[in-house]
Amino acid sequence: MKASHFLGSARCGRVARLLCGLLGLAACAATVAGEVPRPADAERLLALRTEALAHEHGEGVARDYARAAKLYCDGARLGDAEAQYSLGWMYANARGLERNDALAAYFFDLAAKQGHAPAQKMKRFVGEPTTEVPECMRQLLPADDAQDVMLPSTEAQRQVVGLVNQLAPEYGVSPRLALAVIRTESNFNPAALSSKNAQGLMQLIPDTSARFNVKKPFDPEQNLRGGLAYLRWLLAYFEGDVSLVAAAYNAGEGAVNRYRGVPPYAETRGYVKRIMSLFKRDDHPYDARVTTPSPELPRIRLTRGS
Question: Among residues 99, 249, 257, 274, which one has the fewest Cβ atoms lying within 10 Å of its Cβ?
């Protein structure tokens, strides 16, 4: 089959999948073979895809490819495989964007790693993905935040930053938050070992490594994946409250629940202050499907409001 023919048929399949997601009909499973409909509770991702699709096809609004691409990228950054695939398709087919096979491959690769079958098929037509994280995937924070102490100063640090920028979007975690944790925990040292046996870049204790299936905590990629998985879980558990996430990363979620907020430990309070000064935001997007929220959240919020 010629690539052009495959791209054309892929376009029809993509529209069908998006319509399935918008309509929420189980019957669509017969239209898109092997595709599992996304959970109905992913309201934010669905809203992003709905608006992106409308702008891409001019349905009810003026056709605006740039707006569609931005919305797809917002969804892609939050881990939506369908949005990742759709943006890859736009780049692969020059649909309102300049054709860019490396960017297409980047987004297809993200979706493919989540088991998105059409993205896995499309990867063969666009070559290798870019090693640079697309700008829109970094827009959780203003661009002027780039000039700060988290900029790498050595080649080893630049390699860590590149790996973070590559992996963090897979987990729906802002690279900046991950880098804030790394700067505070290990100062970019993959061989760091604390007196409490916290290990590697993100200083995973053995229990956390086991919890997130990290076999080699001093391997930079394995350590990062474990730390990112833990941050993703904490973000869902504390519904994106960065101060609680930071406190839990340092002292454990049990301590945050027990004290109904940041524990009164000098180390933890200093840690939270450091993370907040680096990340510069109070909240962070989260995926509510990862875990049920902390049962103490209502009381924590009530305490803060008093």
Answer: 99
State pLDDT tens for residues 223-240: 999 999 999 999 999 999
Q: Which residues are part of the catalytic machinery?
A: 185
Cβ atoms of 227 and 204 within 8 Å: the answer is yes
- Are residues 49 and 17 in contact, defined by beta-carbon separation less than 8 angstroms? no
DSSP 204: B
d(CA 101, CA 94): 9
Segments in the chain below pLDDT 70: 1-42, 138-150, 305-306
pLDDT at 5: 38
CA-only gyration radius of the chain, Å: 20
Residue where a domain stops, chosen among 110, 126, 142 = 126
At 157, list the tokens: 């640090």
The domain spanning residue 18 has which CATH number?
A: 1.25.40.10
- Of 204, 211, 172, the C-alpha closest to 186 is 204
| 8 A C-beta contact, residue 72 and residue 28 | no
Q: Report pLDDT digits (tens) over 106-154.
A: 898 888 887 888 888 888 888 888 877 777 776 443 333 434 556 777 8
Together in a domain, 66 and 166: no
- For residue 223, give its domain range: 153-305
| Domains contained in the chain, number | 2
Domain boundary at 75, 110, 126, which? 126
**Can you read off the two tokens belonging to residue 258?**
């027990």
Residues 289 and 247 sit within 8 Å (Cβ to Cβ): no
Q: Residue 258 corresponds to which amino acid?
A: R
Maximum Cα–Cα distance across the chain = 66
